[in-house]
Design brief:
- The model has no long low-confidence stretch (mean pLDDT 93).
- With 271 residues, the protein is mainly alpha-helical.
- Helix 8 packs across helix 12 and helix 11 runs antiparallel to helix 12.
- The protein contains 14 helices and no strands.
- It has a single domain, classed as Vanadium-containing Chloroperoxidase, domain 1 (Up-down Bundle), CATH 1.20.144.
- The longest helix is centred in the last third of the chain and has 29 residues.
Length: 271
């Protein structure tokens, strides 16, 4: 058992013991889904229900679960809210571990390998293997929950939309034909757990790590720079995301320039 943290941000952003039940609650309530008791009928129903909305809407939401996309989207936090940027980076290693481990040990077919493709809407490449868990959903919930738990208790009441946005990213994985509902539920559960575990690491970091010259922010800046490269040179998941990738790249570059300026200004003032 880890000793309680006493850093200032640990005191302003506590997580109650009851909150640790959230991942298990999602997992248990979703039991019929990950056991696929209602498949493929449920998947087809949700997939078709989402079909009237433009493909770009769902691929854009899905981008929220892509690591490079999330790095670019949250890049402004480097300057505007460094603590929140570090908070979700603390959750990232747990998210990667859970996603890779799950896909390595669980060999489950994706919907396209089971359902007649004429009965479903597929956006992008046809995927057939390593369905469980949904990595995009896991990432989206890890980032959203880590940021959410890093807020003060009062701020959390106004930012519940972060978790709704993560749920939208999960729904998008069904809408584009990439995952079963059960994959999304397990991804959400593991993502919440990643956020909570990341929070335990975050509250133990010294305050100096949130300064512009702190190592965590330096690592974040390097990762954001890498995201710009991937956004400009690769097709992240869907061709429909081309414009969104360009916009995110501009956002990331602008944030990086602002961060570098802040670091240099701090050094000049120190002299």
């Amino acid at each position: 058992m880890l000793p309680p943290a006493s850093t200032p941000h640990a005191l302003t952003s506590p997580v109650s013991a009851r909150t640790w039940w959230w991942p298990l609650l999602v997992f248990v309530l979703g039991t019929p889904l990950w056991l696929q008791l209602w498949e493929p009928r449920l998947f087809i129903t949700i997939n078709q229900w989402c079909a009237p909305l433009a493909a770009e809407f769902w691929t854009g939401l899905s981008l929220l679960g892509n690591g490079w996309g999330v790095l670019a989207l949250t890049a402004p936090l480097l300057v505007l809210a460094p603590r929140l940027m570090v908070a979700w980076l603390c959750a990232a290693p747990f998210a990667v571990l859970f996603a890779r481990t799950g896909k390595f040990f669980i060999e489950s077919p994706r919907p396209a390998a089971v359902v007649d493709n004429t009965q479903m809407r597929v956006v992008g490449e046809l995927l057939h293997n390593v369905s469980m868990p949904s990595g995009h959903t896991l990432t989206a919930f890890a980032v959203a929950s880590a940021i959410y738990f890093a807020l003060t208790v009062a701020q959390r009441r106004r930012h519940w939309w972060l978790l709704v946005l993560a749920a939208g990213a999960g729904l998008s994985r069904i809408a584009v034909g990439a995952h079963w509902p059960g994959d999304v539920v397990v991804g959400a559960s593991l993502g919440l757990l990643s956020g909570l575990l990341g929070h335990q690491l975050w509250i133990r970091l010294p305050e100096r790590q949130f300064a512009p010259s702190g190592w965590w922010l330096r690592i974040a800046a390097v990762l954001v720079a890498l995201s710009v490269y991937h956004l400009l040179t690769e097709e992240l998941d869907f061709a429909e995301n081309h414009v969104a990738q360009q916009v995110l790249a501009v956002l990331a570059v602008g944030s990086l320039l602002a961060y570098v300026w802040r670091v240099l200004r701090g050094r000049f003032k120190a002299k």
